Amino acid sequence: DGTELTAKPKRSFYAARDLYKYRHQYPNFKDLRYQNDLCNLRFYKNKIPFKPDGVYIEEVLNKWKGDYEKLEHNHTYIQWLFPLREQGLNFYAKELTTYEIEEFKKTKEAIRRFLLAYKMMLEFFGIKLTDKTGNVARAANWQERFQHLNESQHNYLRITRILKSLGELGYESFKSPLVKFILREALVEDTIPNIKQSALEYFVYTIRDRRERRKLLRFAQQHYTPSEHFIWGPPRKQKLEGSKTNKKPASPISIHHSYISKHKKPKEPKNTSASGSSAGKTTEERKVELTKNGEENDQDKQEMNCDAVRQNNGEKNSDTDTGQLSKSEEINDTSDRKEDVSHSKKDDENLNNECGNHPGTTEKDLCDTENSSNNTSVDLQDNFDKDMLSGGTTTKNKDQLKS
To answer: Which of 346, 261, 359 is nearest to 304 (CA)?
Structure first.
């Protein structure tokens, strides 16, 4: 049991915070400071070399391509090839700005070189770009490169940066095919099993489209082993409903009322019969009978008082348990309603039958209010991100935040 518990993966607070900020267009407050610099764009226009190495982009694309030793051991070029709106480990590389992003997209020369840099890195990983829509497949050298990728885990940070940069520079649609390919190789083909944690923790959540993320999570859940360790989606809805029906007890209030009614019913005919029969009797007989009735009533009251005390004590305990249960049911019902509403509007498939909320939370995905265009739908993964940001579970190495 102890081994099983330690082997079970856990969500990373740092990953949730990092990818939440990225998906929601994390604002760069240094835009005014850097908007006239455009060093990333000038590097891609081959006007300045990247620092500190002093190498131009054309030399990287022509001479470094295929030199896997150089690409593996040099750690300063990746921040220049795939810039982000956040600071990386190379402090000579400057952050992208929103103004620079727009200028970059307008520059055909920069876009052409950016795609060549993407192809070069895919080949380094053992993958090739097959068409202009972003679909990928195994490269000719995939066996050798997959083995290296499975062992050299610092490249997972590079993949995260590449995915983020694709989204920043206008190639958001390229992300999903690459992540789907990696998930298939890790979970189905078992060629790069060590990458599955990073793929589910980071790669999937770089994708801004909620429906695309859900499709990838459903695919991963179908092939993840052991299935009970899959923590990136909610449990199936049928299980939640089954637990509700099994755990829901009878209401203690109704039990209390029925108990009191049993005592009240026999008293009514007793009083009426006593009053009716006493009319035809002598005064002394009526006095004796009234005395007996009074004693019986006192005994009944004492019994009822004792029973009420016992019942109240039991009722308090059961009320506490029931209150706790009803709260959990209310949370589950609320999450189910939210999920059904968003799903009926934007997703024809039944998400709850495929992939549902994170254990211990509601999905919710680890924080969230989507962009104004998505305010009418509830992003379950993003709500989970909110829970993670407020509480968190476990942490990963801070280096996972940025390459």
So the answer is: 261
Determine the Cα–Cα distance for residues 252 and 233; give it in Å rounded to an integer.
36
Cβ–Cβ < 8 Å for 12, 204:
no
| Integer Cα distance of 243 and 239 in angstroms | 6
Global pTM exceeds 0.70: no
Query: What is the residue-averaged pLDDT of the chain?
Result: 72
Q: Both tokens of residue 361?
A: 């939370």
State residue 290's pLDDT score.
52
Closest-CA residue to 29 (of 81, 87, 73): 87
Helices (H), ranges, 76-209: 78-81, 98-106, 108-125, 142-151, 155-168, 175-183, 196-198
Position 112 scores a pLDDT of: 97
* CA distance readout (Å), 380 to 214, 335, 361, 370, 389: 10, 9, 10, 11, 14
d(CA 248, CA 326): 8
SS3 of residue 354 by DSSP: helix
Which tens digits make up the pLDDT trace of 194-228? 999 999 999 999 999 999 999 999 999 999 998 88
SS3 content of the chain, % helix, strand, coil (to 5): 65, 0, 30
Asked whether the beta carbons of 223 and 190 are under 8 A apart, the reply is: no
Whether 240 and 336 have beta carbons less than 8 Å apart is answered as yes
Q: Which residue has tokens 């952050």?
A: 95
CA distance 88 to 207: 20
At 62, the amino acid letter reads: N
Under the banding of pLDDT at 50, 70 and 90, the label for residue 316 is very low
